[in-house]
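Posting for a labmate who doesn't have an account.
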Amino acid sequence: METGEVLRAGPVPVTELRAGIVVGPGSAAFEVIRDLVYHLPLMLAPRWVSSRSQPIGLEDLLDYLVGLLRLDDDGEHHVYDAVGPETLSYGDLLRQFGQVVGRTVRIVPLPVLTPRLSSYWLDLVTAVPASIARPLIDGLKHDLISERANELQDLIPIRQRSYRDAVRQAMAEEESAALTVRWTEGGFRYRRQRHDVSWYDKSVRVSVRSERPAEEVWRDISSIGADRGWYVATWIWKLRGLIDRAIGGVGMRRGRRHPTDLRVDDPLDFWRVAAVEPGSSLTLVAEMKLPGSAVLELSVEAEGAGSVATLQAHFHPAGVAGLLYWYGLWPIHMVMFRRLAEVLATGPTRPAGEDRARRAARRQAD
């Protein structure tokens, strides 16, 4: 509202569209609902679960926006409330979402949870960042009911979707979303094409300045894995592969198709190549057994006479188990990923394949 007031203070006519809960991928309220329904069959719900709102589907909101652009400009400021056709409590939203996706939702009210405690609670049981959850909860302390609910619909008549239909539409939109070359938050492909894997990610990013030209760094990125190893603590990677095989995963046995060339959809140990930009970036999606989805991006950019090597690891947790996995292994991952970025910047000292070749050569000489 403050933004709208500032804009309306200027000379340019402004039309402001106010929406409460938007039902669509990436909407904070929608993602909280998704995480809670998929991963908490029994919810100790705070007071705001009884707050009422008029959720609107993302597609309906876009229809209104397009409709407003087609109206004649009368040179005046306008403010409209964009709301859906139903008035539902947050508890209703949880239950109806569960009905759409086939999950049973049980809610136990817990009035002692204050908004601040609620934000901490959401941070523990969902992947929605606390910086997003806290403003959301502040807005849910009161009913979000419009007194001008029909004004926009009278001006731009559309066929409004029910909340259930909006949820179904949101799920369908996720599945048909265009593929991206690099990881993007919420990308369905990077969440193993699973609706129960969180839209939001937990991530680590490490960048290291290198005196080596970008071409040299890229050669090491594009030849990582398989016989050459993972440059840092390869034994840990192999141990993780053995554990994965023991629990029914693919393990490390697949290796890679070619020692230096990578193509989209190539297997690479327990990863698969999701995207590759030769000379620039490599994006891998984990195919090991995980309580969520993991993505590893290795990239290099030229900078002056040298370059910058960057590693980004993204993990989209699937429920509390995924969050425990991320936080439990975060110290190990942080050390390994930082060290891997440093090795890419300085250059691997001796790849595992070279060690074996040298030992074989010495045996032949003896």
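Reply:
Got it, the structure tokens are right above this. The first helix runs from residue 2 to 8.
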